Amino acid sequence: MKFASALMAPLLLAAGAATALAYPVTVNSCDREVTFDAPPSRAISNDVNLTEMMLALGLTERMVGYTGVSEWKTLDETLRVGVAELPELSPDYPTREVLLGADADFFFAGWNYGMRVGGEVTPETLAPFDIAVYELTESCIHVMDRPKSSIDDMYVDLLNLGRIFGVEDKAEALVASYREELAAFATTLPTGDKPSVFIYDSGENKPFTAGRYAMPTALIEAAGGTNILDDVEAGWVELGWEAVIERNPDIVVIVNYGEVTAEQKIAFMKDNPAFKDIPAVQNDRFVVLEYVEATPGPRNIAAIKRLATAFNPS
């Protein structure tokens, strides 16, 4: 896939000869290898967490916009400032026409993060139009077997983006700082029994939650807890309330986004007689994570620290 463009000349010159000679680069994206002959210059990201990864690497000048936010997500102040000069090209998952209309040469998305298996927008459907796709690592469970979720999933995405866009040094430094920060924090965690945790994303008839392949499982473990659904062979998944009641979580983590507020989700659980014997409900132990914190992205480290504080109140 060739992405060289006259628009990139100043950027390549600024980056120096070493960066210019670094191409082509090949990265693994789920079960594919994707090769880049030059840094993308008209990139689009989908969703708030993927967009924030692009912002963390200073890639806004290589972007023509973002998608998949305002239909059911929100931009907080940090994100709003970061994308101030960029248009939202689609409030929900983009169509192929949206990407073609923006003359995109790169789409950073994931399965159920802007793409659906068998849908209109996939790496295969975009390839004839020279739009390269890099897939969010956490989402690869939808198209291949993979290990359970890990904070390394987020690191891998940042490092691959760094290679794709020729900012490998910046990506490596950022990931190294995250690793160091988390390693130092891990030494402060108490030993002993780990609290059991349920992730409540959405849904009343059936909860939408996180199995072993979704990022919250990794966040909970790094904070000193265990996901009650760690044995569920899925990423983000809908299942029955029976499993939650049976497994009796000590703590409920609420993922906050959309029209139903975190307060309303908490009230639903506290007011439902079916949940009255769950320790988390009895002891009012609810923790709120914003969507951008609970999904893979730069805010995962701060989210781990907040979870640990909630798991181990002083």
Spell out the key features of this protein.
single chain; 314 residues; alpha/beta; Rossmann fold; 2 domains; six-stranded parallel sheet; four-stranded parallel sheet; 14 helices; 14 strands; 36% helix; globular
Describe this structure in words.
The chain is 36% helix and 18% strand. It has 314 residues and is of the alpha/beta class. It folds into 2 domains: 6-180, Rossmann fold (3-Layer(aba) Sandwich); 196-311, 3-Layer(aba) Sandwich (Rossmann fold). The strands form 4 sheets. Strands 3, 4, 5, 6, 7 and 8 form a 6-stranded parallel beta sheet that branches. Helix 7 packs antiparallel against helix 8. It is globular and about 55 Å long.
Question: What's the arrangement of secondary structure elements?
Answer:
Layout: H1 9-15, H2 17-20, E1 25-29, E2 32-36, E3 43-46, H3 48-56, E4 63-67, H4 77-82, E5 88-90, H5 96-101, E6 106-111, E7 114-115, H6 123-126, E8 132-135, H7 152-164, H8 168-186, E9 196-200, E10 208-210, H9 215-222, E11 226-227, E12 236-238, H10 241-247, E13 251-256, H11 262-271, H12 279-282, E14 286-290, H13 291-294, H14 300-311
Parallel strand pairs: 3-4, 3-6, 4-5, 6-7, 6-8, 9-11, 9-13, 13-14
Antiparallel strand pairs: 1-2, 10-12
Helix pairs in contact: 7-8
Low-confidence stretches: 1-19
Structural class: alpha/beta
> What's the mean pLDDT score?
92
CATH superfamily label of the largest domain = Nitrogenase molybdenum iron protein domain
The helicity comes to 25-40%
Instruction: Count the domains.
Output: 2
Tell me the CATH topology of the largest domain. Answer: Rossmann fold
Strand content: 15-25%
| CATH class assignment of the largest domain | Alpha Beta
